[in-house]
């Protein structure tokens, strides 16, 4: 990375997700080649010494170690306040970007200087499109349609599916209301400052609030459907009662902040009851989930290792001892394999993303560039798991 005045400031908040953060920093480092930039990692008191790990593997990255978990909003604001770049991009610690992702973001801001905020299309580790990549403003009506299930029943409706802008082609560029905090870019305002996140939100909802603030102050938010990235999603969080409370109470914070004073008090009461009622049902359902949560072990028989390395196969064979492992530099088909492993040390991120786009949902895994572990996304319903070699 250059010593020039940064064009970009990449801000990453981490919490107990070192292996995924490692994948993120590896891809970010490749994507920033030739761009004057800085990377700032704010760690929220992870159990692993993230600062030491980053110092060993990514010495140019700026690190801040919080003594306690300050939450997503406060930690990102620490990064935003110290950022020196012309454009700041909030990036989750479980992202893989293509080698040209940041160049495309810079070019877009240069071509459209009136952009308020910018987001991108996201795929999960199995190649599925993540609907939260583009969202509409969660007004009471829009939120009600989602809670009633109308969004799922009419996924392409301009009215009922507005929560995810379901009427807009996911692979095209659009002006949208709400961006995902997993990858959210903004430029400095006329006074040289970045828009900060509302610290009422500990986790969840802060990206909705930030998007709304950006659009109200500076114009339209834009979505790059032509610029996909991989977002493993939820790797620094564990589903529990506290997480559900953060998620649903963030809805009430947003509603109270922007809509409560404009709405009839009986409607406000119904909204409050709906949010807290669903929250209670979700928390109650955790007990049932835990009692029935039997996760099958992955027994792979036919594995495709996408790599040009000479020693990688032996490591994978130790992990999947009963598997027939085929090594290829390119993916011709995914149908005959029950696992496709990408070697990040020898395979470009952009090629991997292109494979996900071409072949769609499949059981993929991602071998870290240091060869010490892989992230496997091959079990249905799993967010992914880290397997150490």
TrEMBL record:
Keywords (alphabetical) are: Glycosyltransferase, Transferase
Q: Does the keyword Glycosyltransferase apply?
A: yes
> What Gene3D superfamilies does the record point to?
Spore Coat Polysaccharide Biosynthesis Protein SpsA, Chain A (3.90.550.10)
Q: Which residues does the UniProt record annotate as the domain Glycosyltransferase 2-like?
A: 9-181
Identify one Pfam family in the record. Glycos_transf_2
PANTHER family listed in its UniProt record:
RHAMNOSYLTRANSFERASE WBBL (PTHR43179)
Please give the name of this protein.
Glycosyltransferase
């Amino acid at each position: 990375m250059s010593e020039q005045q940064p064009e970009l400031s990449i801000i990453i908040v981490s919490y107990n997700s070192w292996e995924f953060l490692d994948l993120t920093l590896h891809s970010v480092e490749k994507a920033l080649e030739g761009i004057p930039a800085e990377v700032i990692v704010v760690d929220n008191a992870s159990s692993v010494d993230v600062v030491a790990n980053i110092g060993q593997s990514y010495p140019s990255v700026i690190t801040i170690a919080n003594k306690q978990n300050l939450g997503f909003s406060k930690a990102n604001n620490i990064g935003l306040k110290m950022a020196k770049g012309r454009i700041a991009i909030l990036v989750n610690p479980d992202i893989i970007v293509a080698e040209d992702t940041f160049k495309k973001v810079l070019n877009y801001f240069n071509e459209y200087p009136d952009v308020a905020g910018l987001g991108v299309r996201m795929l999960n580790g199995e190649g599925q499109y993540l609907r939260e990549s583009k969202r509409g403003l969660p007004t009471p009506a829009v939120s009600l349609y989602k809670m009633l299930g109308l969004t799922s029943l009419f996924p392409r409706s301009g009215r009922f599916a507005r929560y995810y802008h379901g009427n807009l082609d996911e692979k095209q560029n659009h002006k949208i209301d709400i961006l995902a905090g997993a990858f959210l870019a903004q430029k400095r305002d006329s006074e040289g400052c970045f828009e900060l996140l509302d610290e009422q939100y500990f986790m969840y909802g802060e990206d909705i609030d930030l998007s709304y603030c950006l659009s109200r102050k500076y114009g339209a938010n834009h979505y790059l459907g032509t610029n996909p990235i991989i977002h493993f999603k939820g790797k620094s969080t564990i589903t529990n009662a506290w997480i559900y409370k953060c998620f649903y109470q963030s809805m009430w914070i947003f509603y109270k902040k922007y809509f409560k004073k404009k709405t009839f008090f009986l409607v406000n009461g119904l909204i409050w009851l709906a949010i807290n009622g669903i929250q209670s049902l979700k928390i109650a359902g955790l007990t049932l989930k835990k009692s029935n949560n039997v996760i099958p072990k992955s027994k792979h028989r036919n594995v495709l290792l996408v790599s040009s390395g000479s020693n990688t196969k032996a490591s994978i064979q130790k992990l999947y001892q009963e598997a027939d492992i085929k090594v290829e530099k390119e993916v011709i088909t995914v149908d005959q394999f029950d696992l496709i492993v990408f070697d990040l040390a020898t395979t470009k991120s952009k090629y991997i993303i292109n494979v996900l786009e071409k072949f769609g949902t499949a059981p993929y895994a991602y071998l870290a560039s240091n060869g010490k572990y892989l992230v496997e996304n091959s079990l249905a319903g799993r967010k992914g798991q880290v397997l150490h070699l």
